[in-house]
Amino acid sequence: MGYVGGVVDGVGYNDAMTAGRPKKTLECLPKGWQDEVVALAEVGASDVEIVDYLDISKDLFYRFIEDEPEFSSTIKKAHVKCEVWWQRNGRTNLDGKEFNSTLWYMNMKNRFGWADKQEVKQDVTSGGKQLQSISPHQFVDS
After folding, report:
1. Using 50, 70 and 90 to split pLDDT, how confident is the model at 122?
2. What gap in Å lies between CA 113 and CA 125, rounded to an integer?
3. How many Å is the Cα radius of gyration of the chain?
4. What separation, in Å, do the N-terminal and C-terminal C-alpha atoms of the chain show?
5. Helix %, strand %, coil % for the chain, to 5?
6. Measured distance CA(87)–CA(76) in Å, rounded
7. Above 60 in pLDDT, residue 48?
8. What is the Cα–Cα distance from 45 to 82, expressed in whole angstroms?
9. Mind listing the pLDDT tens digit for each residue in 126-135?
10. How many Å separate Cα 127 from the centre of its chain?
11. How far is residue 70's CA from residue 68's CA, in Å, rounded to a whole number?
């Protein structure tokens, strides 16, 4: 039939354009993906390595975490297994000559949100008026 006055093969142009590709589901993942994801995490694999194994995009990975309870619980379990691997690796290798503790520590900070210190910001009111908050790094010697 073809294109005729805003209609392509009997479907309105706007209808055809909004249909799009069907959303991917957990069915598109490799069989046994749950066990393999946990196995990867048990040897310290990152989320990016898991994304690569599953052959999906990061966007789809995060959508599955939000929308798919089975995927979310598997990833939460994997995150614990991964952190355990990295902590155990640090604990058991502290005395090793080849162990790079600085690299390990930087990895832990970046991967698991470890921090050297915490800054606390406090809002103060006086007579119902909000006073300006000043954090320590705003003080400058003149």
Report:
1. confident
2. 31
3. 25
4. 79
5. 55, 10, 35
6. 17
7. yes
8. 6
9. 777 776 665 6
10. 43
11. 6
Q: How many CA atoms lie within 13 A of 53 on its CB side?
A: 18
What single-letter amino acid sits at 40? L
- CA dihedral angle for residue 93, residue 81, residue 116, residue 131, rounded to 10 degrees: -170
Residue 98 half-sphere exposure toward CB, CA atoms < 13 A = 2
Closest CA to 62 of 49, 72, 77, 76: 72
Q: Rounded to 5 degrees, what angle do the CA atoms 131, 132, 134 make? A: 130
Q: In this predicted model, what pLDDT tens digit does every residue of 30-46 receive, in sequence order?
A: 999 999 999 999 999 99
Strand 7-8 relative to strand 129-131, pairing? unpaired
Which residue type does 68 have?
E
Distance CA 20, CA 98 (A): 53
Q: Which amino acid is at 79?
A: H
Instruction: Tell me the CA distances in angstroms from 122 to 105, 113, 138, one per residue in order.
Output: 29, 22, 14
